[in-house]
Write a structure and sequence with these properties.
Elements: E1 11-15, H1 19-30, E2 34-38, E3 50-53, H2 55-63, E4 74-75, E5 78-82, E6 89-94, H3 98-102, E7 107-110, H4 111-123, E8 132-134, E9 139-143, E10 148-151, E11 156-158, E12 161-164, H5 171-175, E13 182-184, E14 187-195, H6 196-201, E15 212-217, E16 225-231, E17 236-244, H7 262-266, H8 274-281, E18 284-289, E19 292-294, E20 301-302, E21 305-307, H9 322-336, H10 346-371, H11 401-405, H12 409-421, E22 429-430, E23 433-434
Parallel strand pairs: 1-2, 1-12, 2-8, 5-15, 12-21
Antiparallel strand pairs: 3-7, 4-7, 5-6, 9-10, 10-11, 13-19, 14-17, 14-18, 15-16, 16-17, 20-21, 22-23
Helix pairs in contact: 1-4, 1-9, 2-9, 9-10, 10-12
Organism: Penicillium bovifimosum
Protein name: FAD-binding domain-containing protein
GO molecular function: FAD binding; monooxygenase activity
């Protein structure tokens, strides 16, 4: 399988300069390719606040030699689910042995910091040729037969490989002929930022000390839920506030619009634990987050063009895996086009990319939609079966931390490549998971 003979360096075009676009630029420059990133706006960046990066994402940051300290992360120590009214912990998942078990920590980043960290790794010093970033390049069309991109500004460019990392409203996805089957979620979300300094000054709880992802509610099959994620070393508390859509529908709103009034944020929560309610009262930058439930796409590539991240598999945020899935997509492309595995056949590499990524992301998408109204479906809490309120839809289908973190992408790619190349795969892995691994949901891999 290790075919050096046909390897060649490709000229790659990445459409979209967000977290996914920067990640794939890092992976592919390190694999020996020339990468140009095209960003539609006048700068590449991210909006929002916190972003989760569990071990299955963090491992690639290490593999790519990304300077993680630049991202100013909080290393999570716990997942805490609290009672809606009293704030008392109901379900706690301890992450004390997390790094020991999985080899990497669970990082929580501020999006802008994470983006800068990845952009520096894509465009700065390091292995391979630094990627080039071109701003004000909005994709109008792609000729899939000739792999030619036409931009709104009139520029026309040809690439060996084109990657659509252009987010949930992807232009590239449309070119591939995929029409999303989607519906607005039954849930609305407002996001707000609180500084730990101000909360402490007002005598409120100092949640930064917990180094935890904290949740209020989510136990009773209701849409009400508050999610707190600390970032910037604990200085900033990022709150995602969920409530039923009938209490406020933001499906037509955009993130860039002006801030919503604080009354709107507090209104759905008359009975909420007063400590966290006090935090929301001092919330700044209150923004609506549109939530859509997407059915999985039937394919994510055509010709020499493929999709990555939210363009390929938008998901609800309730497994905190959106960024990790984009990073994994990038890692898969980095491996498939590396000197070790790429024998010069782009079509074959992208066929394996689709085969490796679609089942995994589809599984996470479905689990994220379930966890929207039942926190016991969330990775971590799904293992806490001894709490009195534990109830899941189907115990055998629960997404487990083992599936996410014991996954070996190299082995998954080797298995799928062997089948494409007509050779026998002899590894003790099935779809990247060790045969014989017993999952807490009662499934044994390969049984």
């Amino acid at each position: 399988m290790q075919n050096m003979s046909g390897w060649r360096s490709l000229n790659v075009g990445v459409i979209g300069g967000g977290i996914g676009g920067m990640s794939v630029a890092v992976a592919l420059r390190r694999a020996g390719h020339t990468v140009t990133i095209y960003e539609k706006s006048d700068f590449a960046g991210e909006v929002g606040a916190s972003v989760s990066c569990a071990a299955n994402g963090t491992r690639w940051l290490h593999e790519w030699n990304v300077d993680i300290a630049k991202g100013d992360p909080v290393v999570l120590k716990k997942l805490i689910n609290r009672d809606w009214k009293t704030g008392e912990p109901v379900s706690v998942y301890d992450l004390d042995d997390y790094e020991k078990r999985w080899g990497y920590v669970y990082n929580m980043f501020h999006r802008q910091y994470m983006h800068t960290m990845l952009q520096d790794a894509a465009l700065g010093e390091g292995e391979g040729t630094p990627a080039t970033l071109k701003v004000n390049h909005r994709c109008r069309d792609i000729d899939l037969k000739t792999s030619t991109i036409v931009f709104e500004n009139g520029e026309v460019v040809c690439h060996d490989l084109i990657i659509g990392a252009d987010g949930i409203g992807s232009a590239v996805r449309k070119v591939l002929g995929i029409t999303p089957e989607k519906r607005p979620s039954d849930q609305s979300c407002l996001h707000t930022n609180v500084t730990t300094e101000e909360a402490v000054r007002l005598g409120l709880a100092d949640y930064s000390k917990d180094s935890a992802l904290e949740y209020w509610g989510g136990q009773e099959g209701k849409w009400d839920k508050i999610v707190l994620s600390p970032c910037n070393g604990g200085k900033l508390l990022s709150y995602y506030c969920f409530f039923p859509r009938e209490k406020g529908d933001y499906s037509t709103q955009t993130w860039g619009a002006e801030d919503r009034p604080v009354e709107e944020l507090l209104d759905p929560y008359p009975e909420l634990d007063r400590q966290v309610y006090g935090h929301l009262q001092i919330g700044k930058e209150i923004k609506p987050w549109r939530l859509w439930v997407h059915e999985p796409y039937p394919y994510i590539r055509r010709g020499n063009t493929c999709l990555l991240g939210d363009a390929a598999h938008p998901m609800m945020p309730h497994q905190s895996q959106g960024a990790c899935m984009a990073i994994e997509d990038a890692a898969a492309l980095g491996i498939l086009f590396s000197k070790r595995y790429f024998a010069g056949d782009i079509d074959q590499a992208l066929a394996v990319y689709e085969e490796v990524r679609l089942p995994r992301v589809t599984r996470v998408q479905a689990a994220a939609a379930k966890a929207a109204y039942n926190i016991n479906e969330r990775i971590g809490f799904s293992a806490n079966k001894d709490i009195p309120t534990y109830k899941v839809e189907d115990a055998n289908k629960v997404l487990t931390i083992e599936e996410m973190n014991a996954y070996d992408m190299y082995k998954d790619i080797e298995e799928k490549l062997a089948s494409k190349q007509g050779t026998t795969y002899t590894g003790a892995f099935l779809c990247g998971l060790p045969i014989g691994l017993e999952l807490p949901n009662g499934i044994t891999i390969g049984a």
